[in-house]
Design brief:
By secondary structure, this protein is mainly alpha-helical. It contains 4 helices and no strands. The N and C termini lie far apart (40 Å).
Length: 84
């Protein structure tokens, strides 16, 4: 119980450690959404909204395509997560 409480308190302290992140600069507020972000949003929506549920259904029906689809579904978001 004490370990859980200390973890929660330390996590809360880390969350309030940087109060300046809630203020956007004028440049950041007016920045356009570029093509990389649109591609990322499209891939995330496709993977989590379409491919992952199909893979779950294939797993329940014991299809041989379950594992290849789920591996591809797992790798796609990780491959598109480039932090420049």
């Amino acid at each position: 119980m004490l370990t859980t409480l200390s973890f929660v308190l330390s996590a809360a302290l880390m969350a309030v450690a940087h109060p300046h992140h809630d203020e956007l600069s004028e440049e950041a507020a007016n920045a356009p959404v570029d093509a990389i972000l649109w591609i990322h949003m499209f891939l995330q929506a496709t993977v989590w909204g379409i491919l992952f549920p199909i893979g779950m259904v294939l797993g329940m029906t014991r299809s041989r395509w379950h594992v290849p689809l789920q591996v591809r579904t797992f790798l796609t978001p990780h491959l598109t997560h480039h932090h420049a």
